[in-house]
Amino acid sequence: MTSPSAVPRLLAIDDDADSAELVARVAARAGFEADWIADPRLAAETVSRVGPDVVTLDLCMPDLDALDVLGELREAGFDGAILIVSGQPDSIRNAAARLAEANGHEVAGNFRKPVDVAAMRRRLFDIAAARAGGGARSGG
To answer: According to the UniProt entry, which residues carry 4-aspartylphosphate (predicted)?
Structure first.
């Protein structure tokens, strides 16, 4: 992971390239260095290479589901914040967030598609401010 004084990094993981790219653009406008991938099978390698502080994750992707991706992120040493970004109903997204937290991940946000860009930007600003101040991030 990067140091608290460094520009925060975000990796968007979504099999829909347009959605992943949108999230990366929102993150860039919030002061993050942002990357995205549309193949969840590349998640662990990309996390190891990029060293993001935040990962956004779609829940329903072919080839590898979000829970498998979370396991691979943990094995790759990722200990940053997770933002769930999915078109699934609130009940599914909330259950996935609880499961991720039970497995030791920090879930810092939960967004339904189509993404409320302003709300996501505010959440990313909060995460960046907490990192810059060295404080703990709060969920939201």
So the answer is: 58
